[in-house]
Amino acid sequence: MRFLTDDGRFGLLVTPVVASGESRVQLVIEGRLIGGAEPSFAYGAFEEMGNLPRFSDHRFSLFSKDPDNVLAALLSEEEFHDPATLSLSESFDHWLIQGYCYEGSVAMLARPYDDGSLVGATLISVVGCAEYAAIVEMARCYWAQGDARFQSTLWQVKFGSGDDEDHA
């Protein structure tokens, strides 16, 4: 299921994988799908995305004007780097994902890395806080419904549905 902004530049794709009990969670940043095809446990990803740090430093107002300088500021100063770095899940292992709130907007930055070095362009999506929160919450609820269905299926497989009790 896709949860996107109207322009399609930011969002989440959540695909339940019933066989494993996990979900594939991918981000859409700057209209590009980020994250691998491997499923993972998504709870931590939704927790992190729901608790982005709020910054007031004017350097973070540059958003899409200069995403490379914004990313450089996030990477060079520990007070910003650690809170803004999102580990999300295993499917993002080859991506540096940074997110933060600044004056009513959420900025999500992504940049691929290989062998410990950043490569490629810095991608950025800027979304209003209310729209961001709605997208993340809708995706989380969809994931939670899928997780509950999976848990129910496991219960039935392991313990039976209770409808076929042996009445001797």
Helix percent band: 25-40%
Beta-sheet strand percentage?
Answer: 25-35%
Straight-line distance between termini: 46 Å
Total discrete domains: 1
The H-and-E topology, N to C, reads as EEEEHHHEEEEH
Number of helices: 4
What average pLDDT do the residues reach? 80
Radius of gyration computed on alpha carbons:
19 Å
Number of strands: 8
Poorly predicted ranges (pLDDT <50, ≥5 residues)? Answer: 150-168
Shape: globular
Strand order of the largest sheet: 1-2-3-4
Largest sheet: 4 strands, antiparallel
Structural class: alpha+beta
Molecular structure report:
This protein has one domain (2-155). 33% of the residues lie in helices and 29% in strands. The chain has helices spanning 43-49, 67-76, 78-84, 129-159; strands at residues 2-4, 10-17, 22-29, 32-34, 95-102, 105-114, 117-118, 123-128. The strands form 2 sheets. The chain has a 4-stranded antiparallel beta sheet with strand order 1-2-3-4, with helices on one face. Strands 5, 6, 7 and 8 form a 4-stranded antiparallel beta sheet that branches. Strand 2 and strand 3 (22-29) form a beta hairpin. Helix 2 (67-76) crosses helix 3.
